[in-house]
Write a structure and sequence with these properties.
- By secondary structure, the protein is mainly alpha-helical.
- It has ten helices and no strands.
- Helix 7 packs across helix 9 and helix 7 packs antiparallel against helix 10.
- The protein starts with a helix and ends in a 13-residue tail after the last helix.
Amino acid sequence: LVGAFGAGFIPTGSQDPYALRRAAGGIVKIIRAFGFSFSLDRLVKDSKWGYGSERNFSPETEAKLKQFFRERLFFELNLKPGTRDYEILDAVAASGFNDVSDVLKRFEELRSLAGNQEQKFLRAAKIVERTGNILKGVKEKIANEVHSSDIQEPLEKDLLRIYLENESKFNERIRLRDYSGATCLYGDVFYEPVHRFFDQVMVNAEDAKVRAGRQALVKKIYSLYASQIADLSLVSGLK
């Protein structure tokens, strides 16, 4: 696949003379069957050097190959655009596609949670959606860290405290690959405090320092989940 893409033999439309879709689909089938966990980025890099040079394999070509694998995964799972399962996998892939086995595990756990404990799933999804929507409208660079000196209002202080008290608990579930447990924890911990915060606090305040602190706090809460499990703001019909 790397050799073909590097040589410019990239499938388009119905044209796939070298059966590259079948080859990529075969890789996805093997990963699903045996649960092999590995870095797709590393495998592609190693494969490039197998040809003795990276000359013909640009970052753009690598992006096309990864997108190709992504499309094959949706195809192998027989997911149709517009369905809840398709949107969940889309959300999972948006948070990271480097380990396909882990993508599949996150997808299966979230799909099961959405089917069996929908309210737990929706609570977490709504937090990601609301925090993500705030961040989309911000044009300036948002800090990655929250400085307590920038946090003044009782509600934002309370939200920061809740975040700090639960960050390690959430990340421990991530470490154990307990994605449904992490999702339930995220929803249970943040749902009500986040809604109170947004309903009563102006995030984009006129004071630059206050605004920066609140935006950084929102980013922390959003990224805690969306960067590790799934960007559930991509799931439609949230209530």
